[in-house]
Amino acid sequence: MRVTRSTCPYCGVGCGVLIESRGARIVGVRGDPDHPANHGRLCTKGSTLHLSAEPSRQAATRLLQPMLRHDRASPPATTSWDAALDHTAQRLADIVQRHGPQAVGFYVSGQLLTEDYYVLHKLARGLIGTPHIDSNSRLCMSSAVVGYKQTLGADAVPTCYEDLDHADCVFIAGSNTAWAHPVLFRRLDAARARRPSMRVIVVDPRRTDTASVADLHLALQPGTDVMLWHGLLHLMIRHGWIDADYLAAHTQGFAELRALVQDYPPELVAQVCGLQPDDLLTAARWFAGVPDGWPAGVALPRAQRLRTLSLYCQGLNQSSSGTAKNVGLINLHLACGQIGRAGAGPFSLTGQPNAMGGREVGAMATLLSGHRDIANPRDRAEIAALWGLLPGVDLPAQAGLTAVEMFEAAAQGRLKALWIACTNPAQSLPDQTTVRRALRQVEFVVVQEAYATATTCAWADVLLPAATWAEKEGTVTNSERRISRVRAAVPPPAGPLGEGPWPDWRIAAAVGQRLQALLPPRAGGSMFAYATAEEVWNEHRRSTIGRDLDIGGLSYALLEHGPQQWPYPVGAAQGRPRLYEDGRFATADGRARLLALPYESPAEERDERYPYALLTGRLRDQWHGMTRTGTVESLFGHAAEPCVDLHPQDMAEAGLTDGDLVRVRSRRGQIVLPARPSPDVGRRQCFIPMHWGGEYLGGLHADEGLARGVNALTVPATCPRSRQPELKHTAVRIEAA
Ligand code: SF4
User: Fold this and answer.
1) Are 310 and 448 within one domain?
2) How far, in Å, CA of 136 to CA of 425, rounded?
């Protein structure tokens, strides 16, 4: 039996796995005891990975051969790789020639490896010259990115997992860590068992498994987080719990923020958030790190302040106020000096396994490689030189369309081609009516995907089968900036015509080579002459040198000794676990910015016609659209079918009992589900998991018959700063079906 060291492909914890294989068959998976993210632990999803790779399941779900259709009335037909790649390049060249490069959009994924992301980005911006490349990380992390950049100066998580071992207070906001990042939650459990004095505050409208273990659960009204942050800061100022010395030495903007939060007294905040004033005071005191018995009115020196680490995720990010929610929380850390030392700081948890890798290579509408700025001519010139672009050939200078905007533009006919890689927008984006109109409207849809069961496959003009977990080489970066190797344990399965799926980077490079021969010259030599994933990664590494994420000192050879955190410049002996310990931030003047962003209510408020707030989220044992986890029977033991969770009193008032079918209706659509009473959901709120919706119909355009899942309902409103959609608050009504 062969054992291959790799990384779990599910969530941003980034656990190390040992894949056991015999020949071309995966027979088992164990946690890697030497991986610093998990020390051998795996959750239910990670520990059943090998089951999803069993040949019988693969045969039923995998795309094994390129497929192509010349007209949309016909189902796609199996074809050779050469024919599919030639056709893709020819159709894209034709569209670029007729409509210009801006007619092409790329929608990629935080599931891709860094190498895949890098080549797709180079293909889009470098060769075609379209600014329109965005990632499903837009649905995951973009509010955190903008929050970090606007306050601390860089898209860099300043903390690490080890900080859980040093924190006195862990403040979890908008994250059901127990289900979404289970191995990290177990680490929190272990740290708490060692130090029972640790306090845990959970901010979440629902009493989740995470909230149920909190010392203080702030079950706020959905969407009112910014009101809460400002109310806590108001109390910290009133009681003298802020760190005035730290603010004076390392920040700017406090005066304006202080003036703003004067308008957020605890009585108002308690009323709007639906919380008790006493709980607000307790939360403010614990967050600020005030030891029990500390005398009132006596300034608290930094050395005696207890340490607060905040963990946060989609509850903050997926919001029309996503950036303001991130900024407001970071404001609290800065105001109390709760940053830059072990056990203290803001820690945004990445949802997907490589959401951070996509940010590193710049494969998002608003970014450029190596954390560069797309609007900065010098930044563009550096990447143009790295890619060998001809003198005078520039990269697009403006930001591209973000995820929701891209599909709206396609629905309006402004985009003519969509290339969708490793993501399933026909299930996961909000407002599915618009998404499906977009997929019908564009002239040419390329879907690069491992699983035939991804709903979006039904709209593909070309299906390019991708290698998946355990079949390809590359790297991912987890939530704590740690780069781990992903390794091939087995070859991809063979296709009916011979060679089966390819690694994503190789597919993009093969189209790129063909397309480069068809388009007017933009580069001196071949832009895509990569033989291995390592060659791609080495080019990416060069793009980071001198940047905040500098990995010039890393190599694939060094990663053989174990995963490493960035930055890791040439000459470093190890990566840096924690940032800003010297009090100098990544802004031009080294000072962090406190930003005074007022509270704004959710984009679509509840009213008489739509009186419930719909919250969406993950279940413990499923992943995204279930293309992989949905094939493993045991993972349905936790939740066998989708349902809508409602408060028992709301159900009683509506005359509903457990299991009754209800129609959940929003301004955009409706779905029918069984209702389930749950005291963990607040009054006039409901919760529906994100995983169900859509089914593969053999490539036919029977989209009206497809089950659309919860995103038939969700609102396409986005945060004006991050453009992240508001998946955590939609006004709906509930009717007996
Ligand atoms: Fe995989 Fe995340 Fe579970 Fe770790 S916690 S095993 S990375 S799904």
Assistant:
1) no
2) 8
- Measured in Å, residue 173 CA sits from the centre of ligand 1 at 20
**Domain co-membership, 689 together with 558:** no
Q: Are residues 312 and 364 in the same domain?
A: no
- Ligand 1 atom closest to the CA of 184, numbered from 1: 5
Nearest atom within ligand 1 for CA of residue 37: 4
Report the Cα–Cα distance between both ends of the chain, in Å, rounded: 54
* Spacing, Cα 485 to ligand 1 middle (Å): 15
Give the whole-angstrom CA distance, residue 422 versus residue 466.
8
- For residues 481 and 534, give the distance between their C-alpha atoms in angstroms, rounded to a whole number: 19
The answer to the question of residue 603 being in a domain is: no
Report the b/e string of 36-56 with b at 16+ CB within 10 A: bbbbebbbbbbbbbbbbbeee
336 plus 459 within the same structural domain: no
Domain shared by 362 and 380, yes or no: yes
Domain extent at residue 280: 142-352+587-593
- Pairing of the two strands 644-646 and 685-689: antiparallel
Domain assignment present for 649: yes
Q: Give the CATH number for residue 183.
A: 3.40.228.10
CB contact at 8 A, 325 and 276 = no
- Answer yes or no: is 606 within a domain: no
Q: How far is the CA of 416 from the centre of ligand 1 (A)?
A: 38
Average pLDDT over residues 513-530: 96
For ligand 1, pick from 6, 7, 13, 476 the residue to mutate: most ligand atoms within 8 Å of CB.
13
Does the structure show a pLDDT above 60 at 307?
Answer: yes
Q: What is the pLDDT of residue 58?
A: 84
> In angstroms, what is the span from residue 187 Cα to ligand 1's centroid?
12
Residues 114 and 167 in one domain: no
Domain count, the chain: 4
Q: Which atom of ligand 1 is nearest to the CA of 7?
A: 7
- pLDDT per residue as tens digits for the range 235-280: 999 999 999 999 999 999 999 999 999 999 999 999 999 999 999 9
pLDDT over 70 for what percent of the chain? 98
What is the Å distance from ligand 1's center to 31 Cα?
10
Ligand 1: which atom is nearest the Cα of residue 182?
5
User: How many A from CA of 358 to the centre of ligand 1?
Assistant: 19
CB within 6 Å of ligand 1 — which residues? 8, 10-11, 13-15, 38, 42-43, 45-46, 181-183
> By alpha-carbon position, which residue is closest to atom 2 of ligand 1?
11
Could you report the per-residue pLDDT of 6-48, keeping only the tens digit for each?
Answer: 999 999 999 999 999 999 999 999 999 999 999 999 999 999 9
Confidence category of residue 707, pLDDT binned at 50, 70, 90: low
Residue of 42, 186, 354, 623 with the most ligand 1 atoms within 8 Å of its CB, for mutation: 42
What are φ and ψ of residue 338, in 5° steps? -90, 65
Q: What is the DSSP letter of 122?
A: I
Q: Is the pLDDT of residue 696 over 50?
A: no
Please report whether residue 417 resides in a domain.
yes
CA of 172 to the centre of ligand 1 (A): 18
498 with 534, same domain? yes
Cα–Cα distance list, 581 to 121, 152, 285, 341, 691 (Å): 33, 13, 23, 6, 40
Q: What is the CATH number of the domain that holds 497?
A: 3.40.50.740
Q: Give mean pLDDT, residues 373-393.
A: 96
Same domain, 18 and 121: no
